[in-house]
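Forgive a beginner's question, but might I ask you for the amino acids of a protein and the tokens describing how it folds?
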Amino acid sequence: MVLNDPAHAAFLGDGLLQIVRVLAYLGVVTTYLLCRELGQTKLASFIAALVTAFNPLFFSLSFTFMTDVPFFTFGVFSTLFFAKALNGKGDGWLVLGCIFAVAATFTRQLGLMLPLSFAVAWIFRAGFRPKDLARATLPFLLTIGLFLLYSNWLKNSQGNVPEGYGDFERLLQWVSWGKLAAAPLRLGVLSVSLGLFLLPPALLLTDGQELFSQIKKRLTWLGAALIVAVVLVAWPKLPWGNMTYNFGVGPKLLKDGYFFLNIRPTAPDWAINCLKIIGLGGALSLFILVKKRFTSNFKDAQPMAVYALANLVIYGGYLLVDLHCFDRYFFQLLPFLLILMVPAQPIFPKKIAFASSVAALVAMSAVSIAT
């Protein structure tokens, strides 16, 4: 009855918008706190928070009542508390991490990756002793149990739930192995998008001498060749998604109410090609920075790096084969990639690296605000 009243419907809609906006602010602040928990300086953590805040997709979706921003924020909260638990700060943080993992999973089923990745990281940290196995698996079992109870309650009480919600069989039907043929295209699109999204921290962290030493390694060449190959496959389709078309002034907003139409002025071809090249360069830098975390000795990797890698494999892998893959799903990977990019020790960037990082951040912010 409330929804049939335009005034009440407008009130509820405005309330939802305000809630999403608050959650967006909290997601940015929590990103800062997460980087601080990982041992980074205030400056590096602040830049990471701004990279999240002014990501074009995150910024745009903060003004809608889509579930992308709530899912992101609940996920970052859960990751922060799981990080504290993995750092040995007490089981209370584990409980909080589990609570927010449940909230993320209630928002989107892929939130299950959070406690599952925690289980992988905890076992990596503590081993296979019965007590540690119980602590590792309990958050996942609790999350999936509560999610099944909640989704079943929704179906019985509401009747009208999102397609596939709480139906893992239907969810798996969306995973079409025929989509593997399109995986190189999707991986190329994802690489360029993330290369652009994470360009500011990549510029901040990339050291010329260290970059040169990494380039000489065979694994770097193989990885770089793979990235270039999938980007070339995706090149004619870029930009691609349901929010960004031809880059324009900025991403097309879902709040505009138009799908698959570019209602923004289209950027000239030379500008689009420049952005593609910059995105490719950012993707290559991102690969080298992530590779550094694991190639020395995987056994010495930090548990949080293992946690982030597990989330990246689960979420990124699902994007490659899922029937429904949109560009607005990409920014959910930001916190996990930031964890993998940022070294274990505090960073003190050189002036030129800091200046170039700030310039890239200002450019990204201008695009987001101009939209």
About this structure: The chain is about 70% helix and 0% strand. The two ends are 36 Å apart (CA to CA).
